[in-house]
Amino acid sequence: MTELLPRPFVFLRHGETFYNRAYLIAGSPDVPLTPYGESQAHDASAVLGRQAWSHVAVSTMFRARKTARLALPESKLHVYAGLRERDWGALEKTPIQDPMPYFETPDGGESWADFQRRVLDTLNELLTRFECPLVVAHSGVFRVICNVTQGHPYGARIGNVAPILCQPPAQEDNVWQLTPWQG
Predict the structure, then answer these.
(1) How far is 67 from 139, CA to CA, in rounded Å?
(2) Interval 40-73: pLDDT, tens
(3) What are the tens digits of pLDDT across the range 5-53?
(4) What is the DSSP letter of 181?
(5) Closest CA relative to residue 131, chosen from 44, 52, 14
(6) CA dihedral defined by 114, 10, 22, 42, rounded to 10 degrees?
(7) Using an 8 Å Cβ cutoff, are 83 and 59 in contact?
(8) Pfam family of this protein, just one (predicted)?
(9) How would you class 3 by CB atoms within 10 Å of its CB: exposed for 0-12, middle for 13-18, buried for 19 or more?
């Protein structure tokens, strides 16, 4: 499926990692949060903890799981392999490019089509089953969301631990709204 079911959800990127700070592609390495990344997640609990989430879906990767545990210590977390970051193969641990070659398949890496398919399959499963879930994952997952809702994966990088409300289009405008979520 190449579309996202028209149901609202909130997306949260994990806290800062060393790779984020150094502007390097992390991709599939299971890297930890920096102390600042842990602090970001703790600080987010004040806002995220006020919401009674229908479901908290989290990537299997350590940086996303740690962020979710720190931001929502009282919530039950549900881990999904389909929310993992893209495997960038030979490009991992190299500087982030501008623009990123999203649609190219890096040597030894995951194709954009395969990555987008697994992310959308997982998101659509969640949106079928839960009303406005929280999704804790990675910037690449957000790029997939942007690609299917905005028509391209490019644009400013999503901030670490900056929740985004993904609101389906109203019938008259047919455009998804991706806006900061305030709680």
Answers:
(1) 14
(2) 999 999 999 999 999 999 999 999 999 999 999 9
(3) 999 999 999 999 999 999 999 999 999 999 999 999 999 999 999 999 9
(4) -
(5) 52
(6) -140
(7) yes
(8) His_Phos_1
(9) exposed
| Percentage of the chain modeled with pLDDT above 70 | 99
- What letter would DSSP give residue 65? H
**Which strands sit side by side in the sheet containing 78-80, from one edge to the other?**
78-80, 56-59, 134-137, 9-13, 164-167, 177-180
Return the residue matching tokens 């690609």.
Answer: 147
Spell out a b/e string for 85-96, using b for 16 or more CB atoms within 10 Å of the CB, else e: bbbbeebbeeeb
**Furthest C-alpha separation in the chain:** 45
Where residue 34 falls (left for φ over 0; alpha for ψ -120 to 50; beta otherwise) is beta
CA distances to 12, 53, 86 from 92, in Å: 22, 33, 10
In this structure, what token pair is assigned to residue 63? 């940086």
User: 14, 44 in Cβ contact below 8 A?
Assistant: no
Cα angle for residues 127, 132, 136 (degrees, 5° grid): 85
Query: Does pTM top 0.85 for this prediction?
Result: yes
